[in-house]
């Protein structure tokens, strides 16, 4: 007499749950189903995508929006493929409950893997990605029109790079500050320079910088509408210059000459009447004052997101 073997079927919700494990780490659902080699291979590959992409970005000779975006899109596409493939393969392998063997068929074993993969991902993010590049969100108008509130940019985080006039740098306002709150300003003067301002015009080594008038710009910031004068300013050694805003005449349009010492930098916001920068000393005005080299933690590379517009390249 032929023996009949009962096959236990897995319910729909349980199959969906196994598939959703792959959203945390691609391949995790396959590991839950006993497909250890395939699941672990997909998991390791997906974890390696982001640091590999960052490594390739670091090798780019020109770290611009046009160079970064194809690599970023390719990395995201690879990660998406890993997630989709893991979900599909998990769904196909999950209708029946096979003989329970191996260490990962119980829920607490999978929970342990979730914790392990989370720790590994967090370690990779902090020690590989954040130490090289940062995605920063602008929270003030001090760098307008280059950067407005809500804009997003990519910054190269490093203590070792050559700083030139016109660079947009990422700083902490105090030496030894370990907080994750950064400020973004433009380098106006470098060690050895004499910096001054007269009626809103920057003077470097007693020579006025090039200033070209542009059409005025209208802004509506948090319900406050105003018209600002717009200029293209070009600092000595700067390739193509940058835009600045002047809203009104103020006392801070004038600054007595100061000669910068070794490792000292004078930083300005592009929105000159709405920026707390090196013109404001720490003791009397609560500003950052002249910045030391040790306070500069990185250089902004490009803007990739404009508030109200979306994905858009922005030269800094």
Question: Would you summarize the structure shown here?
Answer:
With 316 residues, the protein is an alpha+beta fold.
Question: What does the secondary structure layout of this molecule look like, with pairings?
Answer:
Elements: H1 12-24, H2 28-32, H3 36-58, H4 65-93, H5 107-129, E1 133-137, E2 152-157, E3 168-171, E4 183-189, E5 194-198, E6 201-204, E7 207-208, E8 210-221, E9 224-234, E10 242-246, E11 255-259, E12 264-268, H6 282-285, E13 291-292, E14 296-306, E15 310-314
Antiparallel strand pairs: 1-2, 2-14, 3-4, 3-14, 4-12, 5-6, 5-11, 6-7, 8-9, 9-10, 12-13, 14-15
Helix pairs in contact: 1-4, 3-4, 3-5
List SSEs in N-to-C order.
Answer: HHHHHEEEEEEEEEEEEHEEE
Overall geometry comes to elongated
**How many individual domains?**
2
The secondary-structure class comes to alpha+beta
Under CATH, the topology of the largest domain is which? Umud Fragment, subunit A
CATH homologous superfamily classification of the largest domain: Umud Fragment, subunit A
What percent of residues adopt helix (DSSP H or I)?
25-40%
| Rg, Å, rounded | 27 Å
Identify the CATH class of the largest domain.
Mainly Beta
Largest sheet: 8 strands, antiparallel
DSSP strand tally: 15
Low-confidence stretches: 1-5
Please identify, by name, the CATH architecture of the largest domain. Answer: Ribbon
Number of distinct helices: 6
- Arithmetic mean pLDDT: 86
Q: Beta fraction of the residues?
A: 25-35%
Distance between the termini: 82 Å
């Amino acid at each position: 007499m032929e023996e009949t073997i009962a096959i236990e079927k897995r319910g729909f919700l349980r199959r969906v749950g196994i598939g959703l494990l792959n959203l945390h780490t691609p391949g995790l659902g396959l590991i839950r189903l006993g497909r250890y080699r395939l699941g672990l291979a997909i998991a390791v590959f997906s974890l390696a995508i982001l640091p590999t992409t960052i490594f390739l970005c670091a090798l780019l000779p020109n770290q611009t929006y046009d160079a970064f975006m194809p690599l970023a899109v390719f990395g995201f596409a690879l990660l998406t493929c890993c997630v989709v493939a893991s979900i599909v393969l998990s769904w196909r392998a999950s209708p029946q409950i096979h003989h329970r063997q191996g260490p990962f068929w119980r829920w607490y074993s999978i929970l342990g893997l979730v914790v392990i993969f989370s720790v590994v991902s967090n370690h990779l993010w902090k020690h590989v990605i954040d130490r090289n590049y940062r995605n920063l969100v602008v929270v003030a108008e001090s760098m307008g029109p280059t950067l407005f509130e809500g804009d997003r940019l990519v910054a190269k985080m490093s203590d070792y790079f050559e700083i030139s006039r016109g660079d947009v740098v990422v700083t902490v306002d105090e030496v030894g500050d370990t907080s994750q709150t950064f400020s973004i300003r433009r380098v106006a003067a470098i060690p050895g320079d004499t910096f001054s301002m007269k009626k809103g015009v920057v003077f470097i080594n007693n020579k006025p910088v090039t200033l070209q008038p542009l059409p005025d710009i209208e802004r509506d910031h948090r319900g406050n509408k105003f018209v600002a004068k717009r200029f293209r300013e070009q600092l000595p050694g700067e390739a193509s210059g940058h835009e600045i805003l002047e809203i009104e005449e103020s006392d801070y349009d004038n600054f007595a000459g100061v000669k910068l010492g070794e490792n000292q930098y004078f930083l300005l916001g592009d929105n000159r009447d709405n920026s707390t920068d090196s013109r404001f000393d720490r003791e009397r005005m609560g500003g950052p004052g002249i910045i030391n080299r040790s306070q500069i933690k990185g250089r902004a590379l490009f803007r990739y997101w404009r508030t109200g517009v979306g994905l858009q390249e922005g030269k800094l």
